[in-house]
Amino acid sequence: MKMQYSASNENRKSSFEGERIFLTGGTGFFGKSILSMLQRGFSPETEWVVLSRDPKGFLQSNPEFSGLEKISFLSGDVRDFSFPEMHFDGVLHCAAPTHGVPDGEVRDIILKGTRHVLDFAEKCGARRVLMASSGAVYGIQPSELERILEDFPCSPVTEYGIAKLEAEQMCLASGVPTVIARCFAFTGPYLDRNVHFAIGNFIRDCLEGKDIVIQGDGTSYRSYLYADDLVEWLCAILSDGKDGRVYNVGSDQAVSILELAETIRRAIGSDSRIRIRESPSPGRQTSRYVPDISRATSELGLSVKVSLEDAIQKSSMEPGRRS
């Protein structure tokens, strides 16, 4: 693509040379994180059109994104939005079902939405689509496998993971130049602290002075990439990734759930107690969800810039009030 991206620039600047990008999922965690970066001066010359089911309601709830230069909103559902009559250079397809959506609708949103986005990409002349997929396509990561590579056989076990894998296959068979970002776990100020994500729940409980309750035995391993790093990675993959290529997106720095709770308590300066519901069982396999990111680091020069402790501190701030 014509857009140029400098992954090594510590000031988090990119030059898309006046290009126009279409963003789906613009009002979810990924979308808000992208808008937040744009608000703070990331990619100032790029024009963005953001798909939202209810732009007016979104901007009322998130007034910090009102009036941003070079950013406009399009009202519509990812499955059937009306195609805007303009050329786009790239499409960031980040739309995903919200939590609590029934399995049948999860499939519908992912598959019909992806098909509609691909049709739009063909019509608008986009040179590349980035599909935000998920590490859930791999299925259960073997406990002895420290980090999971992109060529690990996919065997998803959830309806979400199955639909995401089918959407990947749809993209790669479509003839539309596409790159796949298999996204793992993230944190940031716009992460919903009330859905079932350990890091968001733990941050919420520390801020409210409540006990941190670990539902399992605390030995599961996860890793978390900060939102600003996520945005850089997605833009770099859209710009410089190879067509038909899959890239893991996330941190490769594993942390147990117990270590995560301890790190959050320390980073926030909380005296919340940590309570563990279960005791470790001899012979139980340790759950892991940690990507190998060597492809993204070696091919695109990407890296994890924000440490976990810094990411937690930034995530604990109210949206729009970060330094």
What can you tell me about this protein's structure?
With 323 residues, the chain is an alpha/beta fold. It has a domain at 17-187 and 224-251 and 291-305: Rossmann fold (3-Layer(aba) Sandwich), CATH 3.40.50. The protein has 9 helices and 16 strands. The protein has helices at 29-39, 55-61, 103-124, 159-173, 198-207, 227-240, 257-268, 294-300, 308-315; strands at 4-5, 14-15, 20-24, 47-52, 71-75, 90-93, 128-134, 178-183, 186-187, 212-214, 221-222, 225-226, 246-249, 255-256, 274-276, 288-289. Strands 5-4-3-6-7-8-13 form a 7-stranded parallel beta sheet, sandwiched between helices. Strands 14-11-16 form a 3-stranded mixed beta sheet. β3 (20-24), α1 (29-39) and β4 form a beta-alpha-beta unit. α3 packs parallel to α4 (159-173), α5 (198-207) packs parallel to α7 (257-268) and α7 packs across α9. It starts with a strand and ends in an 8-residue tail after the last helix. The model is unreliable at 2-10 (pLDDT under 50).
Q: How is the CATH topology of the domain at 17-187 and 224-251 and 291-305 named?
A: Rossmann fold
Share in β-strands: 15-25%
Enumerate how many helices there are, as a single number. Answer: 9
Helix amount: 25-40%
Kindly state the mean pLDDT as a whole number?
A: 93
**Succession of helices and strands:** EEEHEHEEHEHEEHEEEHEEHEEHH
Q: Which overall shape is indicated by the principal axes computed on the Cα atoms?
A: globular
